[in-house]
Request: fold
Amino acid sequence: MTSKVKQFKPLTMSDICSTAVDQELNSAVSEDGKVRLLGRRTESLWRLVQFMELVLKTKDLAFEVTGRDSCRCSIKKISKLADFYQGFHSFYDLYCEDVEYSPDVALFFRRLAIHPVRDCCFNRPGLSYGGDLIDADIFNNFIECLRGDAKVDGTRKKMADWARNPNKNLARVRSYLNALFERYSRLLVVRVDFLYRETILKDDQAVEDAHVALMRESDSATTDFLHGMKLDAPAEPLARVDVGVAKADMEKFLRQMRSNTVFDETVGYIWKMEWSRWGGYHFHCAFFFDGSEVQSDYLLAKGVGEHWEAVTEGRGFSHNCNQDPRKYRNWGIGRVDHYDHQKREMLGKAISYLAKRDQYVRMKPTGKHRSFQTGVIKKKISRAGRPRSKVPLTAIGNRTVLDSEA
Reply:
Protein backbone atom coordinates (compact mmCIF):
# COMPACT_ATOMS: atom_id res chain seq x y z
CA MET A 1 0.00 0.00 0.00
CA THR A 2 1.47 3.33 -1.07
CA SER A 3 1.66 5.85 1.74
CA LYS A 4 0.34 9.30 1.08
CA VAL A 5 2.92 12.03 0.62
CA LYS A 6 2.24 15.18 2.62
CA GLN A 7 1.92 18.12 0.27
CA PHE A 8 4.38 20.89 1.01
CA LYS A 9 2.93 24.06 2.48
CA PRO A 10 2.19 26.80 -0.03
CA LEU A 11 4.49 29.80 0.00
CA THR A 12 3.06 32.86 1.70
CA MET A 13 2.77 36.28 0.11
CA SER A 14 5.55 37.48 2.42
CA ASP A 15 7.79 34.54 1.40
CA ILE A 16 7.50 35.43 -2.25
CA CYS A 17 7.51 39.22 -2.03
CA SER A 18 10.47 39.58 0.30
CA THR A 19 12.80 36.58 0.33
CA ALA A 20 12.13 35.18 -3.14
CA VAL A 21 11.95 38.43 -5.10
CA ASP A 22 15.02 39.85 -3.36
CA GLN A 23 16.97 36.70 -4.20
CA GLU A 24 15.92 37.03 -7.81
CA LEU A 25 16.17 40.75 -8.54
CA ASN A 26 18.80 42.02 -6.12
CA SER A 27 21.33 39.21 -5.90
CA ALA A 28 24.92 39.07 -7.14
CA VAL A 29 27.75 36.63 -6.47
CA SER A 30 31.14 37.66 -5.10
CA GLU A 31 34.36 35.87 -5.93
CA ASP A 32 34.23 33.90 -2.66
CA GLY A 33 30.94 32.36 -3.81
CA LYS A 34 28.73 34.30 -1.41
CA VAL A 35 25.42 35.66 -2.64
CA ARG A 36 25.16 39.39 -1.91
CA LEU A 37 21.97 41.46 -1.97
CA LEU A 38 22.43 44.82 -3.65
CA GLY A 39 20.38 47.94 -4.19
CA ARG A 40 16.94 48.54 -2.77
CA ARG A 41 15.11 45.75 -0.94
CA THR A 42 11.63 44.58 -1.93
CA GLU A 43 10.29 43.86 1.57
CA SER A 44 7.57 46.49 1.17
CA LEU A 45 6.20 44.75 -1.94
CA TRP A 46 4.05 42.42 0.15
CA ARG A 47 2.46 45.46 1.86
CA LEU A 48 1.72 47.00 -1.53
CA VAL A 49 0.10 43.74 -2.67
CA GLN A 50 -1.98 43.73 0.54
CA PHE A 51 -2.98 47.35 -0.07
CA MET A 52 -4.12 46.62 -3.62
CA GLU A 53 -6.00 43.54 -2.47
CA LEU A 54 -8.03 45.67 -0.06
CA VAL A 55 -8.57 48.33 -2.71
CA LEU A 56 -9.90 45.82 -5.23
CA LYS A 57 -11.90 43.55 -2.89
CA THR A 58 -13.60 46.11 -0.64
CA LYS A 59 -15.60 49.30 -1.07
CA ASP A 60 -14.16 51.06 1.95
CA LEU A 61 -12.25 54.30 2.06
CA ALA A 62 -9.37 54.92 4.45
CA PHE A 63 -10.59 58.00 6.36
CA GLU A 64 -13.80 59.75 7.31
CA VAL A 65 -13.55 63.54 7.56
CA THR A 66 -16.17 65.43 9.61
CA GLY A 67 -16.59 68.96 10.94
CA ARG A 68 -14.88 70.36 7.87
CA ASP A 69 -16.68 73.71 8.14
CA SER A 70 -15.91 74.19 11.81
CA CYS A 71 -12.79 74.68 13.83
CA ARG A 72 -12.93 71.05 14.94
CA CYS A 73 -12.23 69.08 11.81
CA SER A 74 -12.12 65.40 12.77
CA ILE A 75 -10.39 62.63 10.86
CA LYS A 76 -11.24 59.05 11.71
CA LYS A 77 -9.76 55.80 10.39
CA ILE A 78 -12.62 53.71 9.04
CA SER A 79 -10.84 50.75 7.44
CA LYS A 80 -7.57 48.84 7.31
CA LEU A 81 -6.63 50.92 4.27
CA ALA A 82 -5.76 53.76 6.66
CA ASP A 83 -2.95 51.60 8.06
CA PHE A 84 -1.09 52.03 4.78
CA TYR A 85 -1.05 55.82 4.96
CA GLN A 86 2.04 56.00 7.16
CA GLY A 87 5.05 54.91 5.13
CA PHE A 88 3.19 55.08 1.82
CA HIS A 89 6.30 56.64 0.28
CA SER A 90 8.15 53.34 0.59
CA PHE A 91 6.09 51.94 -2.28
CA TYR A 92 7.65 54.46 -4.68
CA ASP A 93 11.08 52.84 -4.31
CA LEU A 94 9.72 49.56 -5.68
CA TYR A 95 9.38 51.01 -9.15
CA CYS A 96 11.79 49.54 -11.70
CA GLU A 97 11.42 50.12 -15.42
CA ASP A 98 13.31 46.89 -16.23
CA VAL A 99 10.69 44.51 -14.85
CA GLU A 100 7.04 43.70 -15.44
CA TYR A 101 4.63 43.86 -12.51
CA SER A 102 1.46 41.90 -11.81
CA PRO A 103 -1.63 43.77 -13.10
CA ASP A 104 -2.63 45.11 -9.66
CA VAL A 105 0.84 46.50 -8.92
CA ALA A 106 1.14 47.86 -12.47
CA LEU A 107 -2.23 49.59 -12.01
CA PHE A 108 -0.93 51.20 -8.81
CA PHE A 109 2.09 52.71 -10.57
CA ARG A 110 0.09 53.92 -13.59
CA ARG A 111 -2.32 55.86 -11.41
CA LEU A 112 0.41 57.06 -9.04
CA ALA A 113 2.26 58.71 -11.94
CA ILE A 114 -0.66 61.06 -12.67
CA HIS A 115 -2.29 61.52 -9.26
CA PRO A 116 -1.54 64.29 -6.73
CA VAL A 117 -1.17 61.65 -4.00
CA ARG A 118 2.49 61.38 -5.01
CA ASP A 119 3.04 64.87 -3.51
CA CYS A 120 1.44 64.13 -0.13
CA CYS A 121 3.60 64.13 2.97
CA PHE A 122 2.01 61.01 4.57
CA ASN A 123 2.71 62.47 7.97
CA ARG A 124 -0.59 64.00 9.06
CA PRO A 125 -3.89 63.09 7.34
CA GLY A 126 -5.23 66.53 8.26
CA LEU A 127 -2.43 68.48 6.59
CA SER A 128 -3.74 71.13 4.19
CA TYR A 129 -1.75 72.56 1.29
CA GLY A 130 -3.60 75.86 1.17
CA GLY A 131 -6.77 74.63 -0.52
CA ASP A 132 -9.88 72.78 0.60
CA LEU A 133 -8.32 69.34 0.29
CA ILE A 134 -6.26 67.67 2.97
CA ASP A 135 -4.05 64.59 2.83
CA ALA A 136 -6.91 62.29 3.91
CA ASP A 137 -9.09 63.52 1.00
CA ILE A 138 -6.33 62.98 -1.55
CA PHE A 139 -5.58 59.50 -0.20
CA ASN A 140 -9.28 58.55 -0.34
CA ASN A 141 -9.55 59.88 -3.88
CA PHE A 142 -6.52 57.86 -4.94
CA ILE A 143 -8.24 54.68 -3.71
CA GLU A 144 -11.41 55.56 -5.63
CA CYS A 145 -9.41 56.24 -8.80
CA LEU A 146 -7.69 52.87 -8.50
CA ARG A 147 -11.07 51.13 -8.31
CA GLY A 148 -12.35 53.03 -11.34
CA ASP A 149 -9.21 52.18 -13.31
CA ALA A 150 -9.49 48.52 -12.35
CA LYS A 151 -13.04 48.32 -13.66
CA VAL A 152 -12.13 49.97 -16.96
CA ASP A 153 -8.97 47.91 -17.43
CA GLY A 154 -10.50 44.57 -16.46
CA THR A 155 -7.81 44.12 -13.81
CA ARG A 156 -9.44 41.08 -12.19
CA LYS A 157 -9.31 39.08 -15.42
CA LYS A 158 -5.76 40.27 -16.09
CA MET A 159 -4.71 39.07 -12.65
CA ALA A 160 -6.22 35.63 -13.28
CA ASP A 161 -4.37 35.43 -16.61
CA TRP A 162 -1.12 36.60 -15.01
CA ALA A 163 -1.30 34.00 -12.21
CA ARG A 164 -2.01 31.16 -14.61
CA ASN A 165 1.60 30.63 -15.66
CA PRO A 166 3.25 30.45 -12.19
CA ASN A 167 0.35 28.32 -10.93
CA LYS A 168 0.76 26.00 -13.90
CA ASN A 169 4.50 25.77 -13.23
CA LEU A 170 3.85 24.97 -9.57
CA ALA A 171 1.40 22.20 -10.48
CA ARG A 172 3.94 20.85 -12.98
CA VAL A 173 6.67 20.79 -10.29
CA ARG A 174 4.46 18.86 -7.87
CA SER A 175 3.41 16.36 -10.51
CA TYR A 176 6.97 15.96 -11.80
CA LEU A 177 8.52 15.34 -8.37
CA ASN A 178 5.82 12.85 -7.39
CA ALA A 179 6.28 10.99 -10.68
CA LEU A 180 10.03 10.76 -10.10
CA PHE A 181 9.57 9.36 -6.59
CA GLU A 182 6.98 6.86 -7.82
CA ARG A 183 9.55 5.52 -10.29
CA TYR A 184 12.71 5.70 -8.14
CA SER A 185 13.12 4.54 -4.55
CA ARG A 186 15.57 7.35 -3.83
CA LEU A 187 16.86 10.40 -5.63
CA LEU A 188 20.11 12.29 -5.33
CA VAL A 189 19.17 15.96 -5.69
CA VAL A 190 21.72 18.47 -6.95
CA ARG A 191 21.11 22.24 -6.91
CA VAL A 192 23.36 24.36 -9.14
CA ASP A 193 23.13 27.99 -10.26
CA PHE A 194 24.52 28.86 -13.69
CA LEU A 195 26.07 32.33 -13.74
CA TYR A 196 28.52 34.42 -15.79
CA ARG A 197 32.03 35.48 -14.88
CA GLU A 198 31.58 39.05 -16.07
CA THR A 199 29.05 39.55 -13.28
CA ILE A 200 31.35 38.38 -10.45
CA LEU A 201 32.09 40.97 -7.78
CA LYS A 202 35.83 40.68 -7.17
CA ASP A 203 36.08 42.10 -3.65
CA ASP A 204 34.27 44.09 -0.96
CA GLN A 205 34.93 47.33 -2.80
CA ALA A 206 33.32 45.92 -5.94
CA VAL A 207 30.31 44.89 -3.86
CA GLU A 208 30.01 48.40 -2.45
CA ASP A 209 30.44 50.00 -5.89
CA ALA A 210 27.75 47.75 -7.36
CA HIS A 211 25.40 48.55 -4.49
CA VAL A 212 25.92 52.29 -4.97
CA ALA A 213 25.41 51.98 -8.74
CA LEU A 214 22.14 50.13 -8.31
CA MET A 215 20.91 52.58 -5.66
CA ARG A 216 21.73 55.48 -7.98
CA GLU A 217 19.92 53.79 -10.83
CA SER A 218 16.85 53.15 -8.66
CA ASP A 219 16.78 56.77 -7.48
CA SER A 220 17.01 58.01 -11.05
CA ALA A 221 14.22 55.69 -12.22
CA THR A 222 11.93 56.74 -9.36
CA THR A 223 12.60 60.45 -9.95
CA ASP A 224 11.96 60.07 -13.67
CA PHE A 225 8.80 58.11 -13.00
CA LEU A 226 7.31 60.51 -10.45
CA HIS A 227 8.31 63.81 -12.03
CA GLY A 228 9.05 63.07 -15.66
CA MET A 229 12.61 64.36 -15.33
CA LYS A 230 15.25 62.92 -17.65
CA LEU A 231 18.62 62.98 -15.95
CA ASP A 232 21.63 64.01 -18.03
CA ALA A 233 24.08 61.69 -16.27
CA PRO A 234 25.11 58.70 -18.40
CA ALA A 235 23.82 55.28 -17.38
CA GLU A 236 26.07 53.14 -15.21
CA PRO A 237 27.89 50.39 -17.14
CA LEU A 238 26.20 47.56 -15.22
CA ALA A 239 27.27 43.96 -15.79
CA ARG A 240 24.30 42.41 -17.57
CA VAL A 241 24.03 39.30 -19.72
CA ASP A 242 21.84 39.33 -22.81
CA VAL A 243 18.83 37.00 -23.00
CA GLY A 244 19.84 35.64 -26.40
CA VAL A 245 23.28 34.62 -25.16
CA ALA A 246 21.85 32.94 -22.06
CA LYS A 247 19.21 31.09 -24.06
CA ALA A 248 21.76 29.76 -26.57
CA ASP A 249 24.06 28.64 -23.76
CA MET A 250 21.31 26.66 -22.02
CA GLU A 251 20.23 25.01 -25.27
CA LYS A 252 23.82 23.93 -25.89
CA PHE A 253 24.14 22.69 -22.30
CA LEU A 254 21.06 20.45 -22.61
CA ARG A 255 22.02 19.22 -26.07
CA GLN A 256 25.47 18.11 -24.95
CA MET A 257 24.35 16.44 -21.69
CA ARG A 258 23.98 13.10 -23.48
CA SER A 259 27.67 13.03 -24.39
CA ASN A 260 28.88 13.69 -20.82
CA THR A 261 29.13 10.69 -18.47
CA VAL A 262 28.32 12.95 -15.49
CA PHE A 263 24.68 12.73 -16.59
CA ASP A 264 24.53 8.94 -17.13
CA GLU A 265 22.29 8.44 -14.09
CA THR A 266 20.30 11.67 -14.52
CA VAL A 267 16.59 10.91 -14.32
CA GLY A 268 15.22 14.45 -14.48
CA TYR A 269 15.89 18.15 -14.09
CA ILE A 270 14.19 21.51 -13.59
CA TRP A 271 15.63 24.85 -14.64
CA LYS A 272 14.41 28.42 -14.40
CA MET A 273 15.87 31.41 -16.23
CA GLU A 274 15.81 34.54 -14.11
CA TRP A 275 16.99 38.13 -14.32
CA SER A 276 18.73 40.27 -11.71
CA ARG A 277 19.46 43.99 -11.76
CA TRP A 278 23.20 43.39 -11.61
CA GLY A 279 23.85 40.10 -13.37
CA GLY A 280 21.18 40.06 -16.04
CA TYR A 281 20.02 36.62 -17.16
CA HIS A 282 21.12 33.45 -15.34
CA PHE A 283 19.73 30.04 -14.38
CA HIS A 284 18.71 28.18 -11.24
CA CYS A 285 18.69 24.42 -11.75
CA ALA A 286 17.93 21.18 -9.95
CA PHE A 287 19.15 17.83 -11.31
CA PHE A 288 17.80 14.50 -10.12
CA PHE A 289 19.93 11.36 -10.22
CA ASP A 290 18.98 7.75 -9.53
CA GLY A 291 20.02 7.47 -5.89
CA SER A 292 20.44 3.70 -6.17
CA GLU A 293 23.28 4.18 -8.64
CA VAL A 294 25.18 7.24 -7.36
CA GLN A 295 25.97 8.66 -3.95
CA SER A 296 28.20 11.76 -4.07
CA ASP A 297 25.94 14.74 -4.64
CA TYR A 298 28.87 17.14 -4.20
CA LEU A 299 30.91 15.51 -7.00
CA LEU A 300 27.89 15.35 -9.29
CA ALA A 301 27.15 19.04 -8.70
CA LYS A 302 30.80 19.80 -9.41
CA GLY A 303 30.59 17.84 -12.67
CA VAL A 304 27.39 19.64 -13.68
CA GLY A 305 29.10 22.99 -13.07
CA GLU A 306 32.15 21.98 -15.09
CA HIS A 307 29.87 21.04 -17.98
CA TRP A 308 28.35 24.54 -17.84
CA GLU A 309 31.82 26.11 -17.91
CA ALA A 310 32.78 23.93 -20.89
CA VAL A 311 29.73 24.73 -23.05
CA THR A 312 30.11 28.47 -22.31
CA GLU A 313 33.82 28.27 -23.14
CA GLY A 314 34.80 29.68 -19.77
CA ARG A 315 32.37 32.60 -19.82
CA GLY A 316 30.17 30.88 -17.29
CA PHE A 317 30.68 29.57 -13.78
CA SER A 318 28.44 27.77 -11.33
CA HIS A 319 27.45 27.93 -7.69
CA ASN A 320 27.35 24.46 -6.12
CA CYS A 321 24.64 24.48 -3.44
CA ASN A 322 25.57 20.90 -2.46
CA GLN A 323 29.03 22.09 -1.40
CA ASP A 324 27.59 23.35 1.89
CA PRO A 325 24.49 21.25 2.67
CA ARG A 326 24.13 22.86 6.12
CA LYS A 327 23.44 26.23 4.52
CA TYR A 328 20.76 24.66 2.31
CA ARG A 329 19.44 22.12 4.82
CA ASN A 330 15.88 23.28 4.23
CA TRP A 331 16.19 22.81 0.47
CA GLY A 332 15.85 19.03 0.47
CA ILE A 333 19.08 18.55 -1.48
CA GLY A 334 21.32 15.48 -1.41
CA ARG A 335 19.81 12.05 -0.92
CA VAL A 336 16.01 12.01 -0.63
CA ASP A 337 14.28 8.68 -0.07
CA HIS A 338 10.82 7.86 -1.34
CA TYR A 339 9.52 7.41 2.21
CA ASP A 340 11.24 10.48 3.68
CA HIS A 341 8.14 12.66 3.54
CA GLN A 342 9.68 15.48 5.57
CA LYS A 343 12.62 15.91 3.21
CA ARG A 344 10.36 15.50 0.18
CA GLU A 345 8.20 18.32 1.52
CA MET A 346 11.29 20.53 1.99
CA LEU A 347 12.42 19.74 -1.55
CA GLY A 348 8.99 20.53 -2.96
CA LYS A 349 8.77 23.86 -1.14
CA ALA A 350 12.29 24.86 -2.17
CA ILE A 351 11.68 24.04 -5.85
CA SER A 352 8.34 25.84 -5.71
CA TYR A 353 10.24 29.10 -5.14
CA LEU A 354 11.47 28.78 -8.72
CA ALA A 355 7.92 28.34 -9.98
CA LYS A 356 6.33 31.12 -7.93
CA ARG A 357 8.97 33.87 -7.77
CA ASP A 358 7.34 35.71 -10.67
CA GLN A 359 3.89 35.78 -9.06
CA TYR A 360 4.16 39.56 -8.57
CA VAL A 361 7.28 40.67 -10.46
CA ARG A 362 8.96 39.07 -13.43
CA MET A 363 11.43 39.92 -16.14
CA LYS A 364 9.97 41.73 -19.11
CA PRO A 365 9.15 39.44 -22.04
CA THR A 366 11.84 39.62 -24.71
CA GLY A 367 10.32 37.64 -27.55
CA LYS A 368 9.28 34.02 -27.33
CA HIS A 369 11.62 32.00 -25.17
CA ARG A 370 11.23 29.32 -22.56
CA SER A 371 12.04 30.47 -19.04
CA PHE A 372 10.95 27.40 -17.07
CA GLN A 373 11.38 23.77 -18.02
CA THR A 374 11.22 20.28 -16.57
CA GLY A 375 12.96 17.35 -18.22
CA VAL A 376 11.33 14.24 -19.62
CA ILE A 377 11.36 11.38 -17.14
CA LYS A 378 13.45 8.57 -18.59
CA LYS A 379 12.01 5.11 -18.93
CA LYS A 380 13.47 3.14 -16.06
CA ILE A 381 15.41 -0.01 -16.92
CA SER A 382 13.83 -2.94 -15.08
CA ARG A 383 15.97 -4.32 -12.26
CA ALA A 384 14.19 -7.50 -11.17
CA GLY A 385 14.49 -8.39 -7.53
CA ARG A 386 15.03 -4.79 -6.39
CA PRO A 387 11.74 -3.66 -4.86
CA ARG A 388 11.49 -0.27 -3.18
CA SER A 389 12.87 -0.64 0.31
CA LYS A 390 13.78 1.27 3.42
CA VAL A 391 16.93 -0.85 3.83
CA PRO A 392 20.08 1.30 4.30
CA LEU A 393 22.61 1.72 1.49
CA THR A 394 26.13 0.35 1.28
CA ALA A 395 28.77 1.54 -1.18
CA ILE A 396 30.37 -1.21 -3.30
CA GLY A 397 33.01 0.11 -5.64
CA ASN A 398 31.57 3.02 -7.64
CA ARG A 399 28.03 1.79 -7.13
CA THR A 400 25.61 2.10 -4.23
CA VAL A 401 23.39 -0.92 -3.53
CA LEU A 402 20.97 -2.08 -0.86
CA ASP A 403 22.54 -3.74 2.17
CA SER A 404 20.34 -6.77 1.47
CA GLU A 405 22.07 -7.20 -1.90
CA ALA A 406 25.64 -6.87 -0.62
Q: What stands out?
A: The chain has nine helices and 14 strands. The CA atoms of residues 169 and 175 lie 10 Å apart. The longest helix spans residues 155-183. Residues 164-405 form one domain.
